[in-house]
Amino acid sequence: MQPVKCIIVDDEPAAHYVLSNYIGQNAQLELVFEAYNGQDAIDYLKENSVHLMFLDIHMPDISGLELLKQIQNPPATILTTAYSEFALESYEYRVVDYLLKPIYYPRFLKALNRFFETNQNAEDEEEFCSELIVKVDSHNVNIPLDSILYTQSYGNYVKIVTQKRNYIATITTAELEKKLPSEMFIRAHKSYIIAIGKVEDMKKDRIIIKRTYIPIGITYKREISERLRDSD
Q: At 127, is the pLDDT very low, low, confident or very high (cuts 50, 70, 90)?
């Protein structure tokens, strides 16, 4: 089972200390980024796929709820705040739970269990899906997952390279990564997602798929090496 990638978004260092400590006590979680303001979180989420976000509501410049409004397809979110008056409004978004500060570990675990229950239900619904549905030229296109070789980012568009043809889809790489099953695909670079089963060879800093050389980002190299070794 791949670890759940988490980020903390809070302007208070004390909150980061508590949450990072709690996350560190759970082997199924991996803290991949910490933001002290909303804009840094937005910039990170545009380029990276995240499973779970611990998000403070009251922050300067961009509040937690404003952040959720600005992000397309935000990750599952557990709100953290000292105020309870926004609880009802928060559930208009993809909010798993609402934690009141100070946050105690048993309550954190309860929210975490709720996330895993919700996530499992979503996985069960998608279990039999064998196609990727994306928008190409304002039309939805169904692409068989087993035909995809790799994808390449072009800003707010992604080129999806398959065995027969290429598609230019209106989606970001971070959004696409959430749609692709992690057992079949993995991020190789800031701009590339690859199909694990289609890799023909791996060199020092690149992967070869159908005579195409795909760069490997430094932050992704270790995980890619482990996944390719396990797939042998």
A: very low
Per-residue buried b or exposed e for 6-27, using 16+ beta carbons within 10 Å of the residue's own CB: bbbbbeeeebbebbeebbeeee
DSSP code of residue 26: -
Alpha helices in the chain (DSSP H): 13-24, 38-47, 64-70, 87-90, 105-126, 173-179, 221-231
Homologous superfamily of 4-126: Response regulator (3.40.50.2300)
Length of the chain: 232
The two tokens of residue 72 are 């397309």
What number does CATH give the domain 131-231?
2.40.50.1020
CA–CA distance, 163 with 165 (Å, rounded to integer):
6
Write out the DSSP string of 193-208: EEEGGG--EE-SSEEE
pLDDT band at 129 (very low <50, low <70, confident <90, very high): low
Q: Would you list the domain boundaries of the chain?
A: 4-126, 131-231
pLDDT higher for 87 or 5? 5
What is the average pLDDT score of the chain?
87
- What residue has token string 């990564």? 177
Neighbour count for residue 231 (Cβ, 10 Å): 10
